[in-house]
TrEMBL record:
Family: Belongs to the FPG family.
Catalytic activity reported: Hydrolysis of DNA containing ring-opened 7-methylguanine residues, releasing 2,6-diamino-4-hydroxy-5-(N-methyl)formamidopyrimidine
Gene source species: Ohtaekwangia koreensis
Single GO biological process annotation from the record: base-excision repair
InterPro entries membership: FPG_cat, FPG_N, H2TH_FPG, Ribosomal_uS13-like_H2TH
Protein name per its UniProtKB record: Endonuclease-8
Keyword tags: DNA damage, DNA repair, DNA-binding, Endonuclease, Glycosidase, Hydrolase, Lyase, Multifunctional enzyme, Nuclease
Amino acid sequence: MPEGPSIVILKEAVEAFKGKKITKASGSTKKFDPALLKGKKITDFKSWGKHFLICFPKFTVRVHFLLFGTYRINEQKDSIPRLHLEFGKKELNFYACALSLIEAPLEELYDWTADVLNETWNAANAMSKLKKNPSQLACDALLDQNIFAGVGNIIKNEVLFRIKVHPLSMVGKLPLAKRKKLVYEAVNYSFDFLEWKKKFELKKHWLAHTKRTCPRDHVPLKKEYLGKTNRRTFFCEVCQKLYI
């Protein structure tokens, strides 16, 4: 599943289509008739967490890539796209993703201050949300899109390793300094992720995710499926302290 930084990269990659009129629209989506997009001008592209938003004057198309979604710019895959948009000789194609049509103003639906890569990100709001759910596990808190929109499983694993917190720790049991560090690193690592992804060197910077040995303690890392989402989690039982 693409994490927030990957959606930001997509938003930057399609910037040239902003202000362009769609000359043809098709696709296999059943959520709306793609043909209604023909002749419409794209006013903006936005991202919120893992959501990619294609904005038009009176509505927005939301793209969520789920686990296996992909996109192609000015090229196609062999499979039928979920949504195909043409701009003269240029095109955008989205595959294996969830699409929806939003008619309400985005400001009524999205808390932009919760997006870890948005310029309006608000750390104090995140701290307040963590305080309201003290029994939430650290691994679940980082994947909670209402708190950390854009954080995915890779970022979760790497942040917890950076701050030396066991994924099964309860948020309310973390010392205040650790909670602040969790919030800070959720954003800090997301920007590192973005930089490394653009350079095509993300994986070489992983310290815990998919790794077998802790680089700090040189002991085997644990691999378990933890939290409400049962996501794959890599952690060190020596240096990542359990707060319960």
